[in-house]
Amino acid sequence: MQIINEPQNALSQATQGIQWAYPNLTWVPNTFGCYDSNFQDDQIPLIAGGGSGHDPAHWGYVGPGMLTAAIMGTVFQPPTSQEIVKVTKQVTRQRRVFSLLKIFQQMLVRLRLLNNNCKRNIGKLVYVLWQTIFPWIMNL
Predict the structure, then answer these.
(1) CA neighbor of 79 nearest in space, from 99, 50, 109
(2) How many Å apart are CA 27 and CA 119, to the nearest integer?
(3) What's the CA gap between 98 and 24, in Å, rounded?
(4) What is the rounded CA–CA span in Å between residue 51 and residue 7?
(5) How far apart are CA 110 and CA 79, in angstroms?
(6) Cα–chain center distance at 12
(7) What is the tens place of the pLDDT at every residue in 26-81?
(8) Cα 108 from Cα 16, distance rounded (Å)
(9) What is the pLDDT of residue 23?
(10) CB half-sphere exposure, 25, CA atoms < 13 A
(11) More confident residue, 111 or 25
(12) Distance (Å, whole) CA 68 – CA 88
């Protein structure tokens, strides 16, 4: 039995299904990021992200009283710093955000890029890097 029709299309097909099932989510073009369409930009947004394949670990928790947005990378790969910045700028006009990023080897490699990209494009960024046992809190 095969659940996935074509592995190379699995993520885009899953995203299409999510868009159909959850019309309250607005999707950011050219990313696998979405946000709560009803979010009022008077609070600090809470954004979570990591690689796809852990679903609904990200988009499944976007909504009132939960996450403001989610940003996924491709299967088991983190989103790029450009994708994180793009989704964040789409969600809020404030220059502050709180992000939760699941950490694994590929994310460690991208943290320096994220740090520089966020300082240039967003401003104040606080994020938590979640590893198996304990979180690291970084305030940039």
Answers:
(1) 50
(2) 24
(3) 21
(4) 16
(5) 9
(6) 16
(7) 999 999 999 999 998 888 889 888 777 666 678 888 999 899 999 888 877 778 87
(8) 30
(9) 93
(10) 28
(11) 25
(12) 10
Task: Quick: pLDDT tens for 74-106.
Answer: 877 778 878 888 898 899 887 778 877 766 555
Structure tokens at 4: 């996935």
DSSP labels for 78-117?
A: PPPHHHHHHHHHHH-SSSEEEEEEE--HHHHHHHHHHHHH
- Taking CA 68 as the corner, what is the angle to CA 43 and CA 96, rounded to the nearest 5 degrees? 45
Q: Which of 90, 29, 86, 32 is nearest to 59 (CA)?
A: 32
Q: Considering the entire predicted model, what is its pTM? A: 0.73
What tokens appear for 95 in the block?
């220059």
Question: Cα–Cα distance between 138 and 115 in angstroms, integer?
Answer: 10
Residue 67 backbone phi and psi in degrees, to 5 = -75, 145
